[in-house]
Amino acid sequence: MFGFIASVVGFGLFLWLAIGLTIHGAVGEAAHDQLRASGTKATGTIASVGAGRVSSRQGALTIFVRPVTLKVALPTGEVQIDVAIVVPETLQSLLIAGAPCEVIVDPANHKHVCITSIGNSFGVNTPVELGSLYSRW
Predict the structure, then answer these.
(1) How many angstroms separate the CA atoms of 39 and 25, rounded?
(2) Are 112 and 105 a contacting pair, CB within 8 Å?
(3) Which parts of the chain register pLDDT below 70?
(4) Which residues contact 31 (CB under 8 A, 6 or more apart)?
(5) Which tens digits make up the pLDDT trace of 102-124?
(6) H/E/C letters for each residue in the chain?
(7) Alpha-carbon dihedral sign for residues 55, 101, 82, 29
(8) How many C-beta atoms surround the C-beta of residue 109 within 10 A?
């Protein structure tokens, strides 16, 4: 009897977790898409990058969340935005202090940011999609 109850509870927890992850991912993806469609496009500079932490692993790919400070030239003036950016380990080398970038910012909440391009010292821009709301990684 105890084994049956334990398996039912275990299956229920697994189902709850699977549903929660699916819904959270869909909500995050929708918010990210909304930001890309209606946010304010601007140029900026990556002012600083923190060490961050491992957020998840997807197969052999490790996903990090890194604290980033951006200086962004919005139509209302330059602002400094401190935000946590989701970035796969393969793109971490692009997040360098002083690098120019192109961003999309939510005018209502500057903590909702999507970095769409990061430049290097040779003037080459790399298109990316790194955001605070959701990342397609």
Answers:
(1) 20
(2) yes
(3) 1-29, 134-137
(4) 112, 133, 134
(5) 999 998 888 899 999 999 888 89
(6) CHHHHHHHHHHHHHHHHHHHHHHHHHHHHHHHHHHHHHCEEEEEEEEEECCCEEEEEECCEEEEEEEEEEEEEECCEEEEEEEEEEEEHHHHHHCCCCCEEEEEECCCCCCCEEEEEEECCCCCEEEEEEECCCCCC
(7) negative
(8) 11
